[in-house]
Each structure stands twice: as structure tokens, then as C-alpha cells.
Amino acid sequence: MSAKLWLWVNQVAVDVPAGANVAAAVARAGAHFRRSCGGEPRAPLCGMGVCFECRVEIDGVAHRRACLVPAREGMRVRCDD
Amino acid sequence: MTDAHDALIDVLVVGAGPAGLAAARAAASHGAQVALVDLQARAGGQVWRPDVQRGIAPGLHRALAELERGVPVQWHLATQAFASAPGRLLIEQEQGLHELRYRSLVLATGARELLLPFPGWTLPGASGAGALQALVKQGWPIAGRRVLVAGSGPLLLAAAATLRAHGAQVLAICEQAPAASVRGFAVRLWRWPAKLAQAAALRTRLAGVPYRCGAWVRAAYGERKVSEVEIETARGLERIACDQLAVGYGLVPNLELARQLGCATVPHGRHAAVRVDARQATSVAGVYAAGEACGIGGIDCARIEGAIAGHHAAGFDDAARALYPRRQRARGFAALLPAHFTVRDEVRACATADTLVCRCEDVPLARLQGWADARAAKLATRCGMGSCQGRICGAALAELNAYPVSSDSAAGASLMRPPLFPTRLAELAQAGFSPADASASVASTSIASQGSTS
Ligand SMILES: Cc1cc2nc3c(=O)[nH]c(=O)nc-3n(C[C@H](O)[C@H](O)[C@H](O)COP(=O)(O)OP(=O)(O)OC[C@H]3O[C@@H](n4cnc5c(N)ncnc54)[C@H](O)[C@@H]3O)c2cc1C
Ligand code: FES
Question: Is any atom of ligand 1 closer than 6 Å to the C-beta of B19?
Fold first, then answer.
């Protein structure tokens, strides 16, 4: 767990270990993931790509499942804050 | 559509977990052209998910090394198989849609956790148990956090051990099954020495963590995130303060692709599994299935069934038959699970009238009651029409016995129209694959399959 990489979550820089996914970066930034249609904050439920509770915007593409996308250096993540 | 993927693939495998990797290896060992598709960015499936701290599991390392020794396999990772028709599979990657054409297809799509609603289950900080394990293996911050693990089945122990290895303070493991039931499971394990050894190793890794049988989560509380959990035990209600709650009630097979192809299913508890014959062949010609998709059985089942499916799919029946006795043994272990970890009625009764069952469309339990069937409920409330397309609420409702899962393949297919996952319609149109086409081909496969059932 030596290498680290940096990415942006809601314009805040966070680091994650190499091999981490975007969900880990969002959690480390302390941000919430999406907001439900009733307006409540939601966070990952299934961890494996089936529930869609972890949806965020990644590099300008909306509705990507943060649990499925590997974190990459310099990535820009936006959550529905 | 690019031409890169246009060549006809002999054996196309969906799922790169233990079952899919074994199928790929078996088929490739006979010189077949094999391609592997998986939604995850890395191979390994659920049990062999690479870990940011501990790297690649030895089992995955071996499986990949064995694959490398044979004919090269075509890899499509971070790839969703989301619509299919006989001989063709539509895949979606970051770059767009492609079509793969195949002679034989092996569905090794595995399982997901059974997640049941209770008041507070939508709060951030509450997730599945295997789910939190998967997240932590990929860098989710857990060191120093207080975690309560709950639900049912042996996966709770594996999940808790991973969390602990990453520095979590595991407060307790609450197993809803009664102690006598869990003991009954443990004493039968001697027939599977590898499982026994695994259980013993887990016990050592979890030394000091209370394992409480007959205890289940009633509700979670917190302001914007979980901070306290109410559990029920024989001695009454108890409140436990924690940072993270991980609850899973075992596993249910992933059937979307199988259903869409028109593969017949069989009842699996209150859920369903792909129906296969001794050859791991489904009711649809040229389509095989292996591993958790055929019923929850764990890694040994997955590997042996994957190998059998791969040999048959490549046309090498003798190599496959030689493995049949080992499969029988592995499935014997699988049969123990439902017998000892049945979800108790009190757990099914945890959701109250205003507990959201459909998390995508925010539909509470009260609005889901009183409809003739799942379809009527869906049309009236939008339950199951959101992003997850009923993957979470469908299994929950079946477990709550609100709307049982149909094991009739035609009904299954009509509930599971392509695209399997939400995708941009424009992309579908560009691929020349309209939703109307796709459902027409689903209908014709299910009719065709009625004649070819063995
Ligand atoms: C969250 C979770 C954690 C688990 N942890 C453990 C553990 O620690 N120890 C243990 O012994 N068992 C564990 N299990 C049990 C596990 O299911 C089996 O041990 C084993 O992984 C089953 O192998 P499989 O190949 O049948 O399925 P899986 O390993 O589940 O592999 C199926 C693969 O198919 C892919 N897939 C499914 N549908 C599609 C699609 N439409 N398109 C593309 N790809 C698709 C999935 O991404 C997945 O990688 C876990 C299960 C889950 C759900
Ligand atoms: S956590 Fe369920 S899809 Fe990402």
C-alpha cells in the first residue's frame, strides 16, 4: 500500500491508495454520494455495481457508479451535494 | 460499432469470478477462442476481489497464471453485458457499445447480497456486509471505525475478518439464526475439510469479536448518517452506537442475463436460480451456466461447475464428465446453507409502513401492499422502475413474500426487458439494437427453448 494517487472530489483534493475506487475517494473526502428523489443523502449499499446508490459525476460524465470505477490520478468527481 | 470485436468467439464467458475463470480456462485448454466479460475493472469476482492492502488473492493468482499458459483469452473488463439475443451479446464499455458474436455462452454471473429493508436502512453508513467488505478492499476508510456486522450466513465472518484486517473495530457479529441452527451447521462441516479449515482460520482472525446468534437489526438511527443501531435478541431490545452498519442476509443469484435469454429457472428458496442439466446446459441451446447463478454454493461449486461448463461449451464432453463426482460433493455443502440460515419471520417484519422499499423511487412499504402482482405494483408505484431496475427491491419483496419471484421463464423475461442497465437510448439506436427488437427476440427464444429443454 505504498503508492497513493490524488483526485478531486467536489474540488477538494483527496488521496487514496493505488487500487482504490472512486467510492473510497468520496468517502475519504467526507462527501455524500447522491441525493434521493425525496432529497435524502445516500451512500453505497451493494459495493458491487447493482444498487446505483453510489452514482456521482466523474470527469463530466453523470451517473457513474463510484464503486465500479477505479480512481485515477487527477480525476474530477462531483457529488450531488 | 468497431470491428475489433467482430470475430466469432467459440466460448464467450460472462463473469470473471471463480466460475467464469474456470470455464475460460477449460475451454481454452482445448484451443477454443475464448472471451471473458466482467462489469468489474479487475478479474476475480466477489471472493477474489483484489485488496489494496493485501493484493491479489493466491487463488486468483493461480487462476490467472493457468489462463496465461493456454491460448490467449480476449478480455473485456469494466464491461457490462446488458442486452442479448441468440448468438450475440451487447456489451457497454466506457467508449460505447459493441456487439460480440459467439457459438457458446457461459453465464457465470454470480450472486448479489440479499438486502432487506428496515427503518433507517437508507441512511449513509448502512450497507450490505459483503458490500462493505468489497468497498474496504478498494480503499474505503475503515481504520478505527466502529462497525456492527449483522444478517445471516458464513459471509458475515469473512466480511468481518476483512474489516478487522483493515483496522476496523468490529463491535459484534449479529447472526439472526438461532444458536442451535448455527451449531448444526458447524458440526456438519467436517465433511468438507477445506471449509472447516477456513472456518477455523476465520475464528482465529476474529478472536475477541462477539458472535451473537439469534440477534438481528431492527432499526438504524442517525442524523444524515448511521450513529446508533437497535438490535433484537432473546433478551429484548438493545441499542449499540456505531459508525458503520453492515447487514446482509446471504446471497441471491444474478439472473438478469439468463432471464433475458429466456433460460428457464428453478425456485431457490424464495428466489430463483438458472436451471441447468448435468452438463451445466441451460434450457436455451448453446447457453451454459455455472457457479452462484445456478444456486448459492460458494467458491468450490463455482470452480468445478465453471470447468464443467467450459469443457462442454468447447465440445469436450469426456473432460467434463470426469469432473461430475467432484461437483456433487461441492453441491452437498451448498445444500447446508439454506437449511441452517433461513431468514426468520421477525426479520421480514422489520420494515414498517413508511420504510422505503424501493430506494431508487422512494416507494414506502405501505404503497406496495394490496396490488394483484409485482407488475401491477410496479406500474402503480414505479417500484423497480428506477436505476437498479428492481435488483434490490425485487429480491427484498420476494423475501418478504409480497410478490414471489416467478420461476416461469416467459414471465421472467417480460419483467427483464433490455437494456439490463439504464443506458443512453441513442447509443442503442446507434448499435442498431432497438428495445423493441430485443424484446421480440427474447420472446422468440423463450418459445424456442420450450422444445429444447432437456
Ligand atoms: C459482496 C460479496 C462478497 C463475498 N465475499 C466472499 C468471501 O469473502 N469469501 C467467500 O468464500 N465467498 C464470498 N462471496 C460468495 C461468492 O459469491 C462466491 O464465493 C464466489 O465468488 C462465487 O463465484 P462465481 O464465479 O459464481 O460468482 P462471482 O464471484 O460473483 O462472479 C460473478 C461475476 O460476474 C460479473 N457479472 C454479473 N453480471 C454481469 C453482467 N451483466 N455483465 C458483466 N459482468 C457481470 C460480476 O461483476 C462478477 O464479477 C461473496 C459474495 C458477495 C456477493
Ligand atoms: S454501491 Fe451499489 S452500485 Fe455502487
Answer: yes
Torsion angle of C-alpha atoms B203, B209, B215, B218, degrees rounded to 10: -130
Atom of ligand 1 nearest to the CA of B43: 49
Q: Is the CB of A67 under 6 A from ligand 2?
A: yes
Query: Are residues B115 and A46, on separate chains, in Cβ contact within 8 Å?
Result: yes
Rounded Cα–Cα distance for residues B141 and B191 (Å): 38
Q: Which of residues 6-35 of A touch B (CB under 8 A)?
A: 16-21, 23-25, 27-28, 32-33
Locate B159 and state its grid cell.
466480511
- Full-model pTM: 0.91
**Cα B174 to Cα B166: distance, rounded to the nearest angstrom:** 20
- Nearest to residue B84, comparing CAs of B103, B66, B99? B99
pLDDT, tens digit (0-9, with 9 covering 90-100), for A34-66: 999 999 999 999 999 999 999 999 999 999 999
> Is residue B442 classed exposed, middle or buried when 0-12, 13-18 and 19+ CB atoms within 10 A define those classes?
buried
Listed residue (A20, A18, A6) closest to A69, CA to CA: A20
Find chain B residues with C-beta within 8 A of A7's C-beta.
none
Euclidean distance between CA atoms B303 and B324, whole angstroms: 12
- The atom of ligand 2 lying closest to the CA of A68 is 4
One-letter amino acid of B239: R
DSSP state of A73: T
pLDDT attached to residue B404: 58
